[in-house]
């Protein structure tokens, strides 16, 4: 190393130490993850959804503290289209070592199963970095519907005379309901709609008997008296849907489903840099400030290691992937 390079390297070491201290990482964690040569330039944080969407808001909330932790600017870039898969492909093909993404669960798990034409394989072409947050879906019905077990019993008796709505084939609302049908006596017919507003209108107008919605959307309608909440799809009750039982409490066995968002990196990113990024992300999202921001967006914070996220991916591949293969579902 030249003498002229030493001051810059020292400054970078001090910056890394200061960032770790600010995040509460401590020296042992820093010693495991610090790479003084990375990042060496601004990072690209790619998001597959438009400005103001949930993934975009999460990415922008994460970017500022992550800049301080890593000592480089972070440029949030929206690559919109194909349900987030255009962004997924861009991340998968990146080789600069400074590109990563905030993604939703579908783009990191079942994208290729739903649409074989997708030009990246989530398992083969992406690396899990850190799980950010999770949320259940909320099973909802018209405001005048029966509650809890009585509702499920009525649905079982009605069979295919009932229908449910989702924002389209292959969406989590569609796959979640098909998974529920495989685990219960419910057999409603699927009716796809253009988006959640149309689903709301159809339920409130009596054209649909049920649907599964993200809590950020469902709870506002439930609290306004426009929908009835039946239960949540998580294994236990969720703070994101206060007062609602889990479907397991209502007698649905072997059923658990959560949506989630996470940070992913290309396969080309060196493992030590993935681990460094994971420590920073998982620490940041667990701070009180970020917990509050993510809760307002409808997420229950987790923060995880790459291995923890890999386990979640494997679980989703087994549950949702099983339904997709069993029924031959293809995104339209």
Give your account of this protein's structure.
With 332 residues, this protein is an alpha/beta fold. It folds into 2 domains: 5-134 and 261-327, Bordetella uptake gene, domain 1 (D-Maltodextrin-Binding Protein, domain 2), CATH 3.40.190; 138-232, D-Maltodextrin-Binding Protein, domain 2, CATH 3.40.190.10. It has 14 helices and 11 strands. It has helices at 5-23, 26-33, 54-70, 85-93, 105-108, 111-114, 122-125, 148-158, 172-183, 196-204, 215-223, 271-285, 288-296, 306-327, and strands at residues 43-47, 74-78, 99-104, 126-136, 138-142, 163-166, 189-192, 210-213, 227-232, 258-266, 300-301. The longest helix is centred in the C-terminal third of the chain and has 22 residues, at 306-327. It is globular, with a radius of gyration of 22 Å. The termini are far apart. Residues 1-35 have low confidence and may be disordered.
């Amino acid at each position: 190393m030249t003498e002229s390079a030493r001051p810059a390297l020292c400054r970078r070491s001090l910056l890394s130490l200061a960032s770790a201290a600010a995040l509460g990482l401590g020296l042992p964690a820093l010693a495991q993850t610090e790479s003084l040569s990375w990042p060496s330039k601004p990072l690209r944080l790619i998001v597959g959804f438009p400005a103001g969407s949930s993934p975009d808001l999460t990415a922008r909330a994460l970017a500022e503290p992550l800049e301080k932790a890593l000592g480089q600017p972070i440029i949030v870039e929206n690559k919109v289209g194909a349900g987030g898969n255009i962004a997924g492909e861009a991340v998968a093909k990146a080789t600069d070592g400074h590109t990563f993404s905030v993604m939703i669960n579908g783009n990191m798990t079942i994208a290729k199963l739903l649409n074989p034409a997708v030009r990246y394989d989530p398992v083969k072409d992406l690396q899990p970095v850190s799980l950010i947050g999770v949320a259940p879906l909320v099973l909802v019905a018209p405001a005048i519907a029966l509650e809890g077990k009585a509702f499920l019993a009525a649905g079982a008796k009605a069979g295919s005379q009932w229908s449910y709505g989702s924002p389209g084939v292959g969406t989590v609302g569609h796959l979640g309901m098909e998974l529920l049908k495989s685990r219960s006596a419910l057999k409603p017919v699927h009716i796809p709609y253009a988006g959640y507003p149309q689903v709301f209108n159809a339920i409130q107008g009596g054209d649909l008997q049920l649907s599964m919605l993200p809590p950020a959307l469902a709870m506002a309608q439930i609290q306004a008296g426009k929908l009835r909440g039946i239960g949540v799809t998580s294994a236990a009750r969720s703070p994101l849907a206060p007062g609602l039982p889990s479907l397991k409490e209502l007698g649905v066995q072997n059923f658990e489903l959560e949506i989630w968002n996470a940070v992913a990196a290309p396969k080309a990113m060196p493992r030590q840099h993935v681990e460094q990024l994971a420590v920073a992300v998982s620490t940041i999202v667990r701070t009180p400030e970020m917990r509050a921001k993510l809760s307002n967006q409808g997420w229950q914070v987790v923060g995880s290691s790459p291995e923890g996220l890999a386990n979640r991916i494997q679980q989703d591949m087994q549950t949702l992937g099983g339904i997709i293969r069993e029924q031959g579902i293809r995104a339209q």
